[in-house]
Write a structure and sequence with these properties.
There is one protein chain. Helix 1 (12-25) packs across helix 3 (44-54) and helix 3 (44-54) crosses helix 4. The chain starts with 6 loop residues before the first strand and ends with a helix. The protein has two domains: 7-209, TIM Barrel; 225-347, Beta Barrel (Lyase, Ornithine Decarboxylase, Chain A, domain 1), CATH 2.40.37.10. With 348 residues, it is of the alpha/beta class. Strands 3-4-5-6-7-8-9 form a seven-stranded parallel sheet. Strands 1, 11, 14, 17 and 18 form a five-stranded antiparallel sheet that branches. The model has no long low-confidence stretch (mean pLDDT 97). A hairpin with a 5-residue loop joins strand 12 (242-243) and strand 13. It is 28% helix and 20% strand. The longest helix is centred in the C-terminal third of the chain and has 16 residues, at 332-347. The protein is elongated. Residues 34, 36, 83, 152, 187-189, 203-207, 213 line the site of pyridoxal-5'-phosphate.
Length: 348
Protein backbone atom coordinates (compact mmCIF):
# COMPACT_ATOMS: atom_id res chain seq x y z
CA UNK A 1 0.00 0.00 0.00
CA UNK A 2 1.62 3.22 1.12
CA UNK A 3 -0.84 5.05 -1.13
CA UNK A 4 -2.06 7.44 1.52
CA UNK A 5 -0.02 10.52 2.26
CA UNK A 6 -0.16 11.01 6.02
CA UNK A 7 3.03 9.71 7.67
CA UNK A 8 3.69 8.38 11.13
CA UNK A 9 7.13 8.07 12.65
CA UNK A 10 7.81 6.36 15.95
CA UNK A 11 10.74 7.47 18.08
CA UNK A 12 12.13 4.39 19.87
CA UNK A 13 14.46 6.54 21.99
CA UNK A 14 11.42 8.39 23.37
CA UNK A 15 9.75 5.10 24.32
CA UNK A 16 12.97 3.95 26.00
CA UNK A 17 13.33 7.29 27.84
CA UNK A 18 9.72 7.13 29.04
CA UNK A 19 10.24 3.57 30.28
CA UNK A 20 13.29 4.73 32.23
CA UNK A 21 11.18 7.51 33.78
CA UNK A 22 8.74 4.89 35.06
CA UNK A 23 11.55 2.53 36.10
CA UNK A 24 12.88 5.34 38.31
CA UNK A 25 9.37 6.04 39.65
CA UNK A 26 9.10 2.32 40.47
CA UNK A 27 11.95 2.54 42.98
CA UNK A 28 12.73 -1.02 44.08
CA UNK A 29 9.77 -2.46 42.18
CA UNK A 30 10.14 -3.90 38.67
CA UNK A 31 8.89 -1.87 35.74
CA UNK A 32 7.06 -3.84 33.05
CA UNK A 33 5.91 -2.53 29.66
CA UNK A 34 2.36 -2.82 28.31
CA UNK A 35 2.36 -3.32 24.53
CA UNK A 36 -1.23 -4.53 24.00
CA UNK A 37 -3.27 -3.25 21.05
CA UNK A 38 -0.16 -3.13 18.86
CA UNK A 39 1.54 -0.92 21.46
CA UNK A 40 -1.44 1.44 21.49
CA UNK A 41 -1.32 1.71 17.71
CA UNK A 42 2.38 2.58 17.42
CA UNK A 43 3.53 -0.92 16.48
CA UNK A 44 4.29 -3.67 18.99
CA UNK A 45 7.51 -4.76 17.27
CA UNK A 46 9.24 -1.39 17.47
CA UNK A 47 7.91 -0.68 20.95
CA UNK A 48 8.93 -4.06 22.37
CA UNK A 49 12.41 -3.74 20.86
CA UNK A 50 12.83 -0.24 22.34
CA UNK A 51 11.65 -1.41 25.76
CA UNK A 52 13.91 -4.45 25.69
CA UNK A 53 16.94 -2.30 24.92
CA UNK A 54 15.99 0.06 27.76
CA UNK A 55 16.05 -2.88 30.19
CA UNK A 56 12.40 -4.00 30.30
CA UNK A 57 12.04 -7.73 30.98
CA UNK A 58 8.28 -8.11 31.56
CA UNK A 59 5.72 -7.40 28.86
CA UNK A 60 1.93 -7.31 28.93
CA UNK A 61 -0.34 -7.96 25.95
CA UNK A 62 -4.07 -8.64 25.72
CA UNK A 63 -4.15 -11.84 23.64
CA UNK A 64 -2.04 -14.91 22.90
CA UNK A 65 -1.55 -13.85 19.27
CA UNK A 66 -0.19 -10.49 20.41
CA UNK A 67 2.07 -12.34 22.83
CA UNK A 68 3.48 -14.61 20.13
CA UNK A 69 4.43 -11.56 18.11
CA UNK A 70 6.19 -9.95 21.07
CA UNK A 71 7.99 -13.23 21.80
CA UNK A 72 9.52 -13.08 18.30
CA UNK A 73 10.94 -9.65 19.08
CA UNK A 74 12.16 -10.06 22.66
CA UNK A 75 13.47 -13.63 22.57
CA UNK A 76 13.01 -16.45 25.04
CA UNK A 77 13.98 -14.90 28.39
CA UNK A 78 11.46 -12.09 29.15
CA UNK A 79 8.12 -12.79 30.80
CA UNK A 80 5.13 -12.09 28.58
CA UNK A 81 1.80 -11.83 30.40
CA UNK A 82 -1.51 -12.17 28.53
CA UNK A 83 -4.09 -9.97 30.25
CA UNK A 84 -7.23 -11.47 28.71
CA UNK A 85 -6.36 -14.84 30.22
CA UNK A 86 -6.57 -18.17 28.43
CA UNK A 87 -9.40 -19.04 26.05
CA UNK A 88 -9.64 -22.76 25.22
CA UNK A 89 -8.36 -22.19 21.68
CA UNK A 90 -5.38 -20.15 22.94
CA UNK A 91 -3.90 -22.75 25.31
CA UNK A 92 -1.67 -24.35 22.69
CA UNK A 93 -0.21 -21.08 21.48
CA UNK A 94 0.33 -19.87 25.04
CA UNK A 95 2.29 -23.04 25.85
CA UNK A 96 4.20 -23.10 22.59
CA UNK A 97 5.40 -19.50 22.98
CA UNK A 98 5.82 -19.77 26.77
CA UNK A 99 3.37 -16.95 27.42
CA UNK A 100 1.86 -16.49 30.87
CA UNK A 101 -1.90 -16.11 30.96
CA UNK A 102 -3.28 -13.77 33.60
CA UNK A 103 -6.09 -16.05 34.78
CA UNK A 104 -9.30 -14.22 35.54
CA UNK A 105 -11.68 -16.78 37.02
CA UNK A 106 -11.84 -20.16 38.77
CA UNK A 107 -12.96 -21.64 35.44
CA UNK A 108 -9.80 -20.31 33.76
CA UNK A 109 -7.63 -21.68 36.53
CA UNK A 110 -9.26 -25.08 35.97
CA UNK A 111 -8.89 -24.81 32.19
CA UNK A 112 -5.20 -23.93 32.44
CA UNK A 113 -4.50 -26.66 35.02
CA UNK A 114 -0.75 -27.26 35.12
CA UNK A 115 -0.13 -26.16 31.54
CA UNK A 116 2.63 -23.81 32.77
CA UNK A 117 3.31 -20.83 35.01
CA UNK A 118 0.45 -18.35 35.27
CA UNK A 119 -0.48 -15.04 36.85
CA UNK A 120 -3.73 -14.16 38.57
CA UNK A 121 -5.93 -11.08 38.31
CA UNK A 122 -8.03 -10.22 41.38
CA UNK A 123 -11.00 -7.92 40.87
CA UNK A 124 -10.92 -5.26 43.58
CA UNK A 125 -13.81 -3.10 42.43
CA UNK A 126 -13.57 -2.42 38.74
CA UNK A 127 -15.83 -5.33 37.79
CA UNK A 128 -14.11 -5.82 34.47
CA UNK A 129 -11.67 -8.75 34.65
CA UNK A 130 -10.51 -10.77 37.61
CA UNK A 131 -11.36 -13.30 40.28
CA UNK A 132 -13.99 -11.91 42.60
CA UNK A 133 -12.94 -11.51 46.25
CA UNK A 134 -15.38 -14.30 47.24
CA UNK A 135 -13.42 -16.80 45.13
CA UNK A 136 -9.94 -15.76 46.21
CA UNK A 137 -9.49 -18.42 48.93
CA UNK A 138 -10.50 -21.17 46.53
CA UNK A 139 -8.19 -19.69 43.87
CA UNK A 140 -5.35 -19.86 46.39
CA UNK A 141 -6.00 -23.58 46.90
CA UNK A 142 -6.16 -24.29 43.16
CA UNK A 143 -3.14 -22.16 42.23
CA UNK A 144 -1.06 -21.55 45.37
CA UNK A 145 2.06 -20.34 43.52
CA UNK A 146 1.08 -17.87 40.80
CA UNK A 147 4.01 -16.03 39.17
CA UNK A 148 2.24 -12.72 39.82
CA UNK A 149 -0.93 -11.57 41.59
CA UNK A 150 -2.31 -8.36 40.17
CA UNK A 151 -5.27 -6.03 40.19
CA UNK A 152 -6.16 -2.84 38.33
CA UNK A 153 -7.26 0.57 39.62
CA UNK A 154 -10.44 2.19 38.31
CA UNK A 155 -9.72 5.81 39.34
CA UNK A 156 -5.93 6.11 39.51
CA UNK A 157 -5.93 9.16 37.26
CA UNK A 158 -7.69 11.06 40.06
CA UNK A 159 -5.30 11.55 42.95
CA UNK A 160 -7.14 11.22 46.23
CA UNK A 161 -10.14 9.36 44.78
CA UNK A 162 -11.54 7.18 47.55
CA UNK A 163 -11.59 4.13 45.22
CA UNK A 164 -7.79 4.08 45.17
CA UNK A 165 -7.32 3.39 48.89
CA UNK A 166 -10.32 1.04 48.92
CA UNK A 167 -8.99 -1.07 46.03
CA UNK A 168 -5.52 -1.10 47.54
CA UNK A 169 -6.86 -2.43 50.84
CA UNK A 170 -8.93 -5.10 49.05
CA UNK A 171 -5.84 -6.11 47.07
CA UNK A 172 -3.70 -6.50 50.19
CA UNK A 173 -6.42 -8.62 51.84
CA UNK A 174 -6.77 -10.85 48.76
CA UNK A 175 -3.00 -11.26 48.48
CA UNK A 176 -2.96 -13.16 51.81
CA UNK A 177 -4.32 -16.17 49.92
CA UNK A 178 -1.03 -16.29 47.97
CA UNK A 179 1.80 -16.05 50.49
CA UNK A 180 5.10 -15.08 48.91
CA UNK A 181 3.62 -14.14 45.54
CA UNK A 182 4.85 -11.05 43.69
CA UNK A 183 2.20 -8.31 43.62
CA UNK A 184 1.29 -5.62 41.08
CA UNK A 185 -1.44 -2.98 41.24
CA UNK A 186 -0.36 0.17 39.39
CA UNK A 187 -0.46 1.11 35.70
CA UNK A 188 0.88 4.49 34.45
CA UNK A 189 -1.35 6.63 36.66
CA UNK A 190 -1.23 4.35 39.69
CA UNK A 191 2.56 4.51 39.66
CA UNK A 192 2.23 8.22 40.54
CA UNK A 193 0.03 7.70 43.64
CA UNK A 194 2.92 7.09 46.01
CA UNK A 195 5.08 4.28 47.27
CA UNK A 196 2.12 2.37 48.74
CA UNK A 197 0.92 1.60 45.25
CA UNK A 198 4.15 0.25 43.76
CA UNK A 199 4.26 -3.26 45.32
CA UNK A 200 6.64 -5.54 43.35
CA UNK A 201 5.89 -4.39 39.80
CA UNK A 202 4.29 -1.48 37.97
CA UNK A 203 2.66 -1.90 34.55
CA UNK A 204 2.80 1.36 32.56
CA UNK A 205 1.30 1.46 29.08
CA UNK A 206 0.18 4.92 27.94
CA UNK A 207 3.07 6.57 29.81
CA UNK A 208 5.57 4.78 27.58
CA UNK A 209 3.92 6.42 24.59
CA UNK A 210 4.05 9.96 25.94
CA UNK A 211 1.17 10.73 28.32
CA UNK A 212 1.42 10.07 32.04
CA UNK A 213 -2.31 9.45 32.48
CA UNK A 214 -3.28 11.82 35.30
CA UNK A 215 -6.34 14.09 35.17
CA UNK A 216 -4.04 16.99 35.96
CA UNK A 217 -0.43 17.66 36.84
CA UNK A 218 1.11 15.29 34.30
CA UNK A 219 4.92 15.18 34.20
CA UNK A 220 6.31 15.93 30.75
CA UNK A 221 7.22 12.74 28.90
CA UNK A 222 8.85 12.35 25.49
CA UNK A 223 6.60 12.40 22.40
CA UNK A 224 6.83 8.85 21.08
CA UNK A 225 5.23 9.52 17.73
CA UNK A 226 4.84 12.22 15.11
CA UNK A 227 2.13 12.38 12.45
CA UNK A 228 2.45 14.72 9.49
CA UNK A 229 0.50 15.22 6.27
CA UNK A 230 1.38 17.29 3.19
CA UNK A 231 -0.27 20.46 1.91
CA UNK A 232 -1.88 19.69 -1.46
CA UNK A 233 -3.00 23.18 -2.37
CA UNK A 234 -2.86 26.76 -1.07
CA UNK A 235 -5.84 29.03 -1.72
CA UNK A 236 -6.63 32.71 -1.30
CA UNK A 237 -10.23 32.84 -0.18
CA UNK A 238 -12.19 36.11 -0.44
CA UNK A 239 -14.24 37.37 2.51
CA UNK A 240 -17.72 35.85 2.59
CA UNK A 241 -16.73 32.50 1.01
CA UNK A 242 -17.19 29.25 2.93
CA UNK A 243 -15.04 26.19 3.61
CA UNK A 244 -15.85 22.51 3.06
CA UNK A 245 -18.96 20.35 3.48
CA UNK A 246 -21.99 21.99 4.98
CA UNK A 247 -20.42 25.42 4.42
CA UNK A 248 -20.25 25.61 8.21
CA UNK A 249 -17.35 28.07 8.34
CA UNK A 250 -17.10 31.42 6.53
CA UNK A 251 -14.18 33.72 5.85
CA UNK A 252 -14.94 36.97 7.65
CA UNK A 253 -11.95 38.56 5.89
CA UNK A 254 -9.76 37.54 2.94
CA UNK A 255 -7.95 34.39 4.09
CA UNK A 256 -5.13 32.12 3.06
CA UNK A 257 -6.07 28.47 3.44
CA UNK A 258 -4.15 25.21 3.10
CA UNK A 259 -5.79 21.99 1.94
CA UNK A 260 -3.99 19.07 3.62
CA UNK A 261 -4.08 15.35 2.79
CA UNK A 262 -5.58 14.07 6.04
CA UNK A 263 -9.09 12.95 6.93
CA UNK A 264 -11.16 10.39 8.72
CA UNK A 265 -9.79 7.69 6.42
CA UNK A 266 -6.57 8.32 8.36
CA UNK A 267 -8.31 8.08 11.69
CA UNK A 268 -8.37 11.88 12.00
CA UNK A 269 -11.64 12.04 13.89
CA UNK A 270 -14.51 14.15 12.63
CA UNK A 271 -14.81 15.44 16.18
CA UNK A 272 -11.70 17.57 15.50
CA UNK A 273 -14.08 19.82 13.53
CA UNK A 274 -14.13 23.26 15.16
CA UNK A 275 -11.21 22.57 17.52
CA UNK A 276 -8.44 20.69 15.72
CA UNK A 277 -5.25 22.21 14.36
CA UNK A 278 -2.07 21.48 12.47
CA UNK A 279 1.35 22.95 13.28
CA UNK A 280 3.81 24.51 10.84
CA UNK A 281 6.96 26.41 11.77
CA UNK A 282 5.79 26.57 15.37
CA UNK A 283 2.45 28.19 14.44
CA UNK A 284 -0.91 26.58 15.13
CA UNK A 285 -3.17 26.53 12.11
CA UNK A 286 -6.82 25.99 13.09
CA UNK A 287 -9.10 23.72 11.06
CA UNK A 288 -11.57 25.53 8.81
CA UNK A 289 -14.89 23.70 8.52
CA UNK A 290 -15.42 19.99 8.72
CA UNK A 291 -12.97 17.13 8.48
CA UNK A 292 -13.70 15.08 5.36
CA UNK A 293 -12.58 11.68 4.04
CA UNK A 294 -9.06 12.52 2.88
CA UNK A 295 -8.80 16.26 3.39
CA UNK A 296 -8.86 19.03 5.93
CA UNK A 297 -8.61 22.77 5.34
CA UNK A 298 -6.39 24.85 7.64
CA UNK A 299 -6.25 28.58 8.29
CA UNK A 300 -2.73 29.39 7.07
CA UNK A 301 -2.76 33.04 8.18
CA UNK A 302 -0.10 32.36 10.82
CA UNK A 303 2.21 30.56 8.36
CA UNK A 304 2.75 33.01 5.49
CA UNK A 305 5.47 30.89 3.85
CA UNK A 306 3.50 27.64 3.79
CA UNK A 307 3.30 26.14 0.31
CA UNK A 308 2.06 23.01 -1.47
CA UNK A 309 4.23 20.01 -0.62
CA UNK A 310 5.13 21.22 2.88
CA UNK A 311 4.45 18.86 5.75
CA UNK A 312 2.12 19.94 8.55
CA UNK A 313 2.32 18.26 11.97
CA UNK A 314 -0.83 16.94 13.65
CA UNK A 315 0.67 14.94 16.50
CA UNK A 316 4.13 15.24 18.04
CA UNK A 317 6.23 17.79 19.88
CA UNK A 318 4.37 20.74 18.35
CA UNK A 319 0.99 19.09 18.81
CA UNK A 320 1.19 17.39 22.24
CA UNK A 321 -0.98 14.35 22.63
CA UNK A 322 -2.91 15.57 25.66
CA UNK A 323 -4.00 18.77 23.87
CA UNK A 324 -4.76 16.97 20.63
CA UNK A 325 -6.97 14.52 22.52
CA UNK A 326 -8.78 17.34 24.27
CA UNK A 327 -9.43 19.04 20.93
CA UNK A 328 -11.25 15.92 19.73
CA UNK A 329 -13.10 15.41 23.02
CA UNK A 330 -11.32 12.14 23.71
CA UNK A 331 -8.31 10.67 25.54
CA UNK A 332 -4.73 10.05 24.37
CA UNK A 333 -5.53 6.30 24.42
CA UNK A 334 -8.01 6.72 21.57
CA UNK A 335 -5.86 9.22 19.65
CA UNK A 336 -3.05 6.66 19.61
CA UNK A 337 -5.07 3.55 18.76
CA UNK A 338 -7.41 5.26 16.30
CA UNK A 339 -5.44 8.07 14.68
CA UNK A 340 -1.86 6.82 14.99
CA UNK A 341 -2.98 3.21 14.54
CA UNK A 342 -4.84 4.00 11.31
CA UNK A 343 -2.06 6.12 9.81
CA UNK A 344 0.39 3.33 10.61
CA UNK A 345 -1.75 0.61 9.04
CA UNK A 346 -2.33 2.79 5.97
CA UNK A 347 1.39 3.18 5.38
CA UNK A 348 2.35 -0.43 6.17
C1 LIG B 1 -3.99 -1.50 29.83
C2 LIG B 1 -3.60 -1.97 31.17
C3 LIG B 1 -2.47 -1.45 31.80
C4 LIG B 1 -1.73 -0.24 31.26
O1 LIG B 1 -2.52 0.89 31.54
P1 LIG B 1 -2.03 2.38 31.18
O2 LIG B 1 -3.12 3.24 31.74
O3 LIG B 1 -1.98 2.44 29.70
O4 LIG B 1 -0.73 2.59 31.80
C5 LIG B 1 -2.05 -2.03 32.99
N1 LIG B 1 -2.76 -3.05 33.55
C6 LIG B 1 -3.88 -3.55 32.98
C7 LIG B 1 -4.63 -4.64 33.65
C8 LIG B 1 -4.36 -3.01 31.79
O5 LIG B 1 -5.48 -3.48 31.23
Amino acid sequence: MGARLARLTVNPDAIAANWRWFARAAGKADCAGVVKADAYGLGADAAAAALLSAGCRSFFVATAVEGARVRDVVGAAPNIYVLNGAAPDEVRLLQQEELMPVLNSLAQIALWGDAGPAALHIDTGMNRLGISPDDVVEAGLLLPKPKLVMSHLACASTRGHEMNARQRAAFVTASHAFPGAKLSLAASAGAQLGEDYLFDMIRPGIGLYGWAGMDDGNPPLAAATTITAPVLQMRDVPAGESFGYGATKRADKPMRAATVALGYADGFLRSFTGSGYGVSGGARLPLLGRVSMDLVILDATAAPDLKAGDEVEFLGEGAPIEEVARAAGTLPYEILTTFAGTVRKNQA
